Amino acid sequence: MQVQGLVPQRQHFIDDASAIGEARRDAQRLAREAGLDETASGRLGIVVTELATNLHRHATNGQLLLQPIATDSGMQIEALALDHGPGMADIDQCVRDGYSSGGTSGTGLGAVRRLSAEFDVHSVPGTGTAILSRIGPGRSARFGAICTAVRGEVVSGDGWRMACDAGDLSLVLFDGLGHGISAADAALAGCAAFLAGPFDAPAVQISRAHDRLAGTRGAAGACLRRWPDGRLSFAGVGNISARACAPGRSVGLVSHNGTLGLQMRRVQQFEYPPQPDALLILHSDGLTARWELAEFDGLSTHHPALVAAVLYRRHHRARDDATIVVIGHG
Q1: Which residues face 259 on adjacent strands?
Q2: Among the three residues 77, 112, 135, which one is the final residue of a domain in this structure?
Q3: Whole-angstrom Cα distance, residue 156 to residue 159?
Q4: What is the predicted pLDDT for the residue at 101?
Q5: Residues 177, 122: one domain?
Q6: CB 44 within 8 A of CB 111
Q7: Rounded Cα distance, 282 and 259, in Å
Q8: Residues 150 and 59 in one domain
Q9: Quick one: 293 and 153 in the same domain?
Q10: Are residues 259 and 177 in contact, defined by beta-carbon separation less than 8 angstroms?
């Protein structure tokens, strides 16, 4: 069984040249903690240096996100680079060895692609670029996740966990009220309730989380189960947004009002038929809910991590913690 979301994501704002080295050193620490061997750790150092250098030299409002990803053979480290422009007009040209837009040797993105176990790019001129690189052995479930604290806070008041086993998938997302440590404690209590029985029915999980959150400041929370045959079960309390998005349609998954740990009238589990061609997208209210995948040309064909990244970049509320998880179809 793979369990994701156990370690907080690291967020680096690439505001000046010193942030490049800081991000590289943090990535190397994360690699040691995840048990990556010397070769993979060296690859990660090169990738993070290249991505951060590109953000510093060419991008606007660049940030680099790092997190460990469980695979069937150990751990990978994910590096996700986001910016708000200028974007790439020809992605294939930009990732070709020898190409440079800034007078350098031009091996940066080509090297990142070669060294990555998984690599993908989404870029729109004038809007921005998102680049995904995962370094390390094995393959993980096809998903993407971003969980960040509002700038100025040490921890995020949001939390998520996902478990995958033989085609069975279960996901929870919690948004503790407010910000900071007390909000994080509430979210972590919900995540602990999930780990007590990750493949229990969503209604059972939400009820258990409600009990575990007693004495905390409370949280919104939701649980999604995708059964091996593709059926979906969902239960939620509070303002966690959840959708199944496929070309030409978007199915909203229903939550009830309330606050886990404080006031919950009832838990109702909803059942949905298989959505074989849909992306499953859950996010906290740190992102606005007024988005449609169709507004991002071609985005749904990219890796779920880039779907999460682009939605986060465009719809993140700057004054709130934010979490979004995107599960690939199939």
Answers
A1: 263
A2: 135
A3: 7
A4: 45
A5: no
A6: no
A7: 17
A8: no
A9: yes
A10: yes
Residues with Cβ within 8 Å of 15's Cβ and at least 6 positions away in sequence, in order, are none
Question: Are 226 and 280 within 8 A, CB to CB?
Answer: yes
Distance CA 132, CA 140 (A): 14
58/55 Cα distance (integer angstroms): 6
Residue 20 token pair:
């490049």
pLDDT of 126: 87
- Predicted confidence at residue 90, as pLDDT, reads 63
Asked if 129 and 209 sit in the same domain, the reply is no
**Residue that the structure tokens 């967020």 belong to:** 11
How many domains are there within the chain? 2
Residue 37 Cα to chain centre, angstroms = 24
Q: Write down the pLDDT at residue 61.
A: 84
What tens digit of pLDDT does each residue of 72-105 get? 899 999 999 999 988 776 666 667 655 544 444 3
* Both tokens assigned to 180: 């900071």
Same domain, 114 and 158: no
Q: What is the pLDDT of residue 116?
A: 95
Helices (H), the chain: 18-34, 38-58, 91-94, 108-115, 180-195, 202-212, 304-315
Tokens of 308: 């999460």
Spatial separation of the C-alpha atoms in residues 186 and 240, rounded to whole Å: 15
- Confidence (pLDDT) at 58: 86
User: 50: burial class by Cβ within 10 Å (0-12, 13-18, 19+)?
Assistant: buried
Contact present, 163 and 169 (Cβ < 8 Å): yes
DSSP string, 4-37: E--SPPEEEE--STHHHHHHHHHHHHHHHHHT--
Q: What's the token pair of residue 178?
A: 């407010």
Domain containing 48 equals 2-135
Tell me if residue 206 falls in helix, strand or coil: helix
Q: Which positions of the chain have pLDDT values less than 70? A: 89-94, 96-107, 330
Q: Which of 135, 152, 187 is the last residue of a domain?
A: 135
In sequence order, what are the beta bridge partners of 245? Answer: 250, 279
* 175 plus 67 within the same structural domain: no
| Placement of tokens 């903690």 in the chain | 33
Give 242-282 pLDDT, tens digit per residue: 999 998 889 999 999 999 999 998 899 999 999 989 999 99
